[in-house]
Specification:
There is one protein chain. By secondary structure, the chain is of the alpha/beta class. The protein has one domain: Rossmann fold (3-Layer(aba) Sandwich). It has 5 helices and 7 strands; from the N terminus they run H-E-H-E-H-E-E-H-E-H-E-E. Strand 4 (about 80-85), helix 4 and strand 5 (about 105-120) form a beta-alpha-beta unit.
Length: about 170
């Protein structure tokens, strides 16, 4: 979805910290990881699909890639900027809440957490996301409908109701 890069731009504008270590969780082919790198961040990109990580490596060797399922991923340090776009809605609600809690725990003071997700019945919703990040100061929560073009799994134009969250520690 094209809106995720716009969201990453907005989240970077909210960052006023001094450090520049970022992690992109569920990075896919790395559009946001590359964007963060271009804005001076030292980026770690995490995804379970090796083909996605290989595409990032074709474009740059300046991004650290980690192949891992987010349910198994263990943070090894804290980050100044944590980005997770359109991933949490794939997990059961309790797992998504646990992952959001891990993100908060591994965010440095002054850091930014940016999460976007598709609102899906029986999955994490905006209120539940907010309850998972209560240690943070909310910068922005936007719920809206966005248009998506045909892709694998939906071979027709369609809309998604989404949540965009940005918070600081």
């Amino acid at each position: 979805m094209g809106n995720e890069l716009l969201f990453a731009r907005k989240a970077v504008k909210a960052f006023h910290g001094e450090g520049k270590e970022a992690i992109d969780l569920g990075c896919g082919y790395g559009r946001n990881a590359l964007f963060l790198m271009q804005h001076g961040f030292d980026v770690t990109a995490v995804d379970k699909h090796p083909d996605c990580l290989a595409e990032i490596k074709k474009k740059t060797d300046k991004i650290t890639t980690v192949q891992a399922d987010l349910t198994d991923y263990e943070f090894t340090k804290k980050y100044d900027f944590i980005l997770c776009t359109f991933v949490l809605h794939y997990f059961e609600k309790n797992i998504a809440q646990e992952l959001a809690g891990k993100m908060v725990a591994h965010l440095k003071k002054g850091g930014v957490l940016a999460i976007s997700l598709i609102k899906t019945p029986q999955k994490l919703n905006a209120d539940e996301l907010l309850n998972s990040v209560t240690e943070l100061s909310t910068v922005s929560v936007v719920e809206k409908s966005i248009h998506d073009n045909p892709h694998t799994g939906a071979n027709y134009p369609h809309d998604h109701d989404v949540v965009f969250y940005i918070g600081t520690k």
